[in-house]
């Protein structure tokens, strides 16, 4: 393997494999929202197993009953109180595949680690990535289908651009993108194939070990070089900590953004009046993105564990209980939003918990916002008469349970 500075061009990425994409879709559920609404109206907090259409999870008789939070205010209450509600719940499957990451740390360890890695996502760095890096990735992908007059935007754009953006931010050579993308998919879909996920995790560690050694010899203008020198209170990140953080960036930064941009395009393309308003006034793209994160958050559930006997909005919760926070349900809480089931770019309040809330709020949200804005803007600039063009009988929809997005977005446009 050769390591190049960011932007080095060697070979084209491997062709898209729809079977691998199918693999990443968790839960074959079309619309969990009516059932969520029904349960939310019964009570914003439920104790005991819940069936949202994919069967209730098995309950461990030796553990306290699991808790599910459906309401917005109740989810915020849990996320605000990070002493009572711990993130160590992620140590299980996630910790085993990714290593120890900030996602599973509580304070004060979390604060220190977040301080070490967050400068790599500051706005000055984002500005630098916007034109040269993100725009270039998106333009290259659009070049691949613009002359054809038709495309599937999931296969040809949204599935590919976030992984290529991360790969370039890390300064990886283009010839490694296909391999990197495959590992990203395997580590993300570890719940459906454990051996493959663990193998990808080990392969990524070995791969990054070579990259780290190279960056130590020859520092470059990329995120890995920055992580190597980051220092807070005389403390630096160890190599294992860097590998874990880099592995976390794949599911955290690739999977989410690919799904969010697909959901945004789905929301706009199935609401042509709003699509045209946004096409005409691009300053509406950030609003459209926030509304997408509320209406169809790509991550519909996050977890916490109760560290003591407590209550959530008056509902008793036992020490040791695992708590599922249904972000998708909180974001459609009728006590907070009018007509919450509607995609409405112009709604008064779009503030949501789609990026989480509190100390663990998404570290990459500004990057996600920037890369999606650049992708959508570039797409609209180049294909101004973009419209949905499903094949006869093709049934387009968003699907999934823990992660949701459309499987296909067939469009037509004037060849460009
Ligand atoms: C639309 C895209 C995205 C969505 C919806 C999203 C969602 C989330 C959510 C809900 C959390 C909180 C998890 C919890 O509290 O349990 C989170 C945390 C995190 N996200 Fe994102 N994310 C997105 C994009 C990104 C990107 C692009 C990156 C980086 C490249 C990223 C990196 C992270 C990291 C490192 C954390 C852990 C932060 C911590 O524990 O302090 N995310 N994200």
Estimated radius of gyration: 21 Å
Order of helices and strands: HHEEHEHHHEHHHHHEEHHHEEEEHHEEEE
SS content category: alpha+beta
Shape: globular
Question: What bound compounds does this protein have?
Answer: protoporphyrin IX containing FE
How many individual helices?
Answer: 16
Q: Strand order across the biggest sheet? A: 1-2-10-7-3
Seen as an oligomer or otherwise, the chain set is single chain
Largest sheet: 5 strands, mixed
Distance between the termini: 37 Å
Strand content: 5-15%
- The number of E-state strands comes to 14
Work out the helicity level: 40-55%
Give a topology summary.
Elements: H1 18-24, H2 33-42, E1 45-47, E2 67-69, H3 72-80, E3 85-86, H4 93-98, H5 109-117, H6 123-143, E4 150-152, H7 153-158, H8 161-169, H9 177-188, H10 194-217, H11 223-229, E5 231-232, E6 235-236, H12 239-269, H13 272-280, H14 285-295, E7 301-306, E8 310-312, E9 315-317, E10 322-326, H15 327-330, H16 365-382, E11 387-388, E12 398-400, E13 404-406, E14 410-412
Parallel strand pairs: 2-10
Antiparallel strand pairs: 1-2, 3-7, 4-14, 5-6, 7-10, 8-9, 11-14, 12-13
Helix pairs in contact: 1-9, 6-8, 6-16, 8-12, 9-10, 9-12, 10-12, 12-14, 12-16
Bound molecules: protoporphyrin IX containing FE.
Outline:
The protein has 416 residues and is of the alpha+beta class. Helix content is 46%, strand content 10%.
């Amino acid at each position: 393997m050769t390591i190049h500075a960011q932007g080095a061009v060697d070979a084209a990425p491997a062709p898209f494999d729809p079977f691998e994409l199918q693999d990443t879709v968790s839960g074959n559920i079309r619309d969990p929202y009516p059932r969520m609404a029904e349960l939310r109206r019964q009570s914003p907090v439920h104790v005991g197993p819940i069936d949202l259409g994919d069967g209730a999870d098995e309950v461990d008789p030796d553990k306290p009953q699991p808790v599910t939070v459906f309401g917005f205010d109740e989810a915020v209450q849990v996320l605000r109180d990070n002493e009572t509600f711990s993130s160590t719940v992620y140590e299980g499957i996630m910790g085993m595949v990714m290593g120890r990451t900030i996602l599973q740390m509580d304070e004060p360890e979390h604060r220190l680690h977040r301080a070490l890695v967050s400068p790599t996502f500051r706005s000055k760095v984002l500005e630098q990535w916007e034109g040269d890096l993100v725009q270039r990735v998106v333009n290259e992908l659009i070049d691949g289908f613009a002359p054809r007059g038709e495309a599937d935007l999931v296969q040809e754009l949204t599935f590919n651009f976030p992984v290529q953006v991360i790969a370039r931010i890390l300064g990886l050579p283009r010839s490694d993108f296909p391999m990197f993308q495959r590992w990203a998919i395997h580590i993300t879909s570890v719940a459906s194939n454990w051996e493959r996920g663990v193998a990808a995790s080990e392969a990524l560690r070995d791969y990054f070990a070579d990259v780290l050694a190279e960056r130590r010899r020859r520092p470059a203008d990329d995120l890995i070089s920055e992580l190597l020198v980051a220092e807070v209170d005389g403390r630096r990140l160890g190599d294992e900590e860097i590998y874990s953080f880099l592995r976390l960036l794949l599911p955290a930064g690739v999977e989410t953004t690919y799904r969010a941009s697909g959901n945004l395009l789905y929301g706009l393309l199935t609401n042509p009046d709003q699509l045209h308003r946004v096409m005409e006034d691009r300053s509406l793209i950030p609003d459209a993105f926030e509304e997408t994160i509320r209406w169809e958050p790509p991550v519909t559930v996050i977890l916490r564990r109760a560290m003591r006997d407590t209550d959530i909005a008056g509902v008793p919760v036992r020490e040791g209980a695992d708590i599922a926070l249904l972000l998708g349900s909180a974001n459609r809480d009728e006590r907070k939003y009018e007509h919450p089931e509607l995609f409405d770019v112009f709604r008064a309040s779009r503030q949501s918990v789609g990026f989480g809330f509190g100390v663990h709020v998404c570290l990459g949200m500004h990057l996600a916002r920037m890369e999606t804005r650049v992708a959508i803007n570039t797409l609209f600039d180049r294909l101004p008469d973009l419209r949905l063009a499903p094949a006869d009988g093709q049934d387009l929809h968003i699907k999934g349970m823990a992660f949701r997005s459309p499987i296909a977005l067939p469009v037509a446009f004037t060849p460009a």
